[in-house]
Each structure stands twice: as structure tokens, then as C-alpha cells.
């Protein structure tokens, strides 16, 4: 999990026997990958898949550094895969859509049930947003359900989080949507660090992040809450964001 990598970077770690590290569960921010390799000297890469659909792609230590830091590798040919737009049509190379899989790797049904992960169209819709670049590498850029729609404009929280983590006083960050009576949703940031909102607004502006993507509120926490698998618990943070808006 990327969260574990971030936490290890803020503690003294020694992994003398490790030759490579692979992470999954959420997109690995390139700035975190760079800090990891600079600090430890151990190559880090990501792989992609799910418990019920198997593994689709993995970046290896042999891949170019920029591909290891920004992609999950090239999809293999054991399973069929495609990337679809919201209407269910295929997208062009470089365009973002939902990652879908089918084939022998995808389980047919869940235990004790008569259905499995595949939808009526025969594909397992992974719920992840991604695109394939011109070299055939898969980029996973977020989750469909995590997209924040502010006044009709889509905000990918992973993009905002990546910029926030570049601030020297922010060790980790998570951005979630909070209900708004006019705009539908607005972004709210939770950070592990001590940077204030005005300071972060100025920083986001200098980094060129569009103003509508800036969080309307910033809350400092000791640690980001985690779910059972070790992922950041965005549902808990959404509840916290709503509660603090009252």
C-alpha cells in the first residue's frame, strides 16, 4: 500500500536484504516513488489487479524509471482488457476511461452466490480510471466513485493530493468531496502536517493547479484513517468533512 510506503519514509527504516518493492491498492504518487528510491536505493514499482479479477499488469525493476514511477506496467495477454468511456465505448490511446477485464483470471462467481464480478456485458468493471500510453503502459489515475463533481466540473482527488504532498510541511494528504447546496460537491483536504489553508492555497497556485480544484477547507490530522486492507478510509473522511461543515 502506498500509505505504508509514505509512513516508512517518515521513520528510520533499514531493508538490507530487499532488492525491489512492489505496491498496489492505490496509485503510487511519482513524488513518493522518487523519495523512496532516493532514500533507500531500492527500486519501487506498482502492479494492478483485484482479488476477484486477478492481476492484469505489473511494472518491474527492469522497466524505465519514469514508467515504474508513473504506471503499473504493461497489461499481459492472459486476460482480455479494455478501457471504456462512460457510455461504454472504447477510448483512444492516452484517453482516460474505466479499466475492464474478462477471461480465465476473472472468477466466475462469488462463494455461495450465483453471480460474480462480471456485469451483464460480460466484463468486470474494475471501478478504476486509467489510460494506456503510446508505449503500451497502463496508468491508473483514480477511482470512478472518488471523482468530485463541483458545479459540473470533475476533480480527481488524486491529482490534488499529489500536489499537496509536494509541500514541505505536508507528509500525507487525502481529498474528499463534501456536499454543497449549490455546487453539489466541494473538495476538502485532510493533511498530516502543519500547513495552513492560506499557505496551501498560495502553494497550489504556484504549482499551477486550477483554482476550482483547490480545497475549500483543510483539516490537519495526526494520521489518515485506514480501512481493513490498509487503504485510506475515504468514507470515514467524508463523514468527518460533513461533520466539520456543520
Describe this entry's structure for a reader:
The protein is α+β, with helices and mostly antiparallel strands. It has two domains: 2-144, ANL, N-terminal domain (Rossmann fold, 3-Layer(aba) Sandwich), CATH 3.40.50; 147-245, 2-Layer Sandwich (GMP Synthetase, Chain A, domain 3), CATH 3.30.300. The chain is 22% helix and 30% strand. It has six helices and 13 strands. A four-stranded mixed sheet has the order 1-2-3-4. It has a four-stranded antiparallel sheet with strand order 5-6-7-8. Helix 1 packs across helix 2. The chain starts with a helix and ends with a helix. The mean pLDDT is 88.
Lay out the secondary structure.
Layout: H1 2-9, E1 21-23, H2 30-40, E2 44-50, E3 54-58, H3 65-70, E4 74-75, E5 80-84, E6 97-102, E7 124-132, E8 138-143, E9 148-150, E10 153-155, H4 157-164, E11 170-180, E12 184-193, H5 197-206, E13 217-220, H6 234-245
Parallel strand pairs: 1-2, 12-13
Antiparallel strand pairs: 2-3, 3-4, 5-6, 6-7, 7-8, 9-10, 11-12
Give me the CATH superfamily of the largest domain. Answer: ANL, N-terminal domain
What is the count of structural domains? 2
**Shape category:** globular
| End-to-end distance | 33 Å
Poorly predicted spans: none
Tally of separate helices: 6
Structural class: alpha+beta
Rg estimate, integer Å: 19 Å
